[in-house]
């Protein structure tokens, strides 16, 4: 079984082309759990599967979190799969990707950079306070696309200096809070200055913090723009993975150009340099 390993802003994914593999969809949740487990397998935040289009797109993207649960869409994952789609010839520089949350348009900017237009907000509640352990947290709730990808947008003053254990405990409780029937990606943020935002995301399905979350950044930007806290123009936004990414509603944080080639057999890993532009990862699982 052939696969690619890619990452966007530190959000890493395994891509399987089911147009070639012909696997039953029933196996994808278990496959995601097995392949995404770090240290014991390839390791990733999620598994993306390329399928035949059903609604006029170039191809269809199925997304599975590392715990095997299905996700409606993934922003950084969509950017990665757009690069994949272009490099193997599934689509041109402008492409239409079908996702569970709706059609996503992607565009090639440079050899390493791709941007997408995120699904539009279908549910938006700017004032949605949530109580945890007797304390009320100001919160906004956003769903992108339909069926909507859920996000809780939570301001945390001094976020950059908050203890990791404290944030993790709060993120876990908010992620499964009864106020969010589908669960939620929890997007903590702090406005550090004009156009300067620091963000941490506790992701549903990963059940922990990830280096970046494209749909989460878009949700934070949408909330802050509607609240008048930011201009809505592309400014600098910080993320826990390092570097800066503009909190643009259309995405656009640069892809990392660090990757590896893997081959896996009976639990053993081989590492080398993939003969692809910018060393996008490729490999095989037997």
Keywords summarizing the entry:
single chain; 286 residues; alpha+beta; eleven-stranded mixed β-sheet; 20 strands
Give a quick summary of the entry.
The chain is an alpha+beta fold and 286 residues long. The chain contains 5 helices and 20 strands.
Listing every helix as H and every strand as E from the N terminus to the C terminus, the arrangement reads: EEHHEEEHEEEEEEEEHEEEHEEEE
- Low-confidence regions: 241-281
Which descriptor suits the 3D outline?
globular
Largest sheet: 11 strands, mixed
Report the β-strand fraction as a percent range: 35-45%
Number of helix segments? 5
What is the average of the pLDDT values? 85
Quaternary state reads: single chain
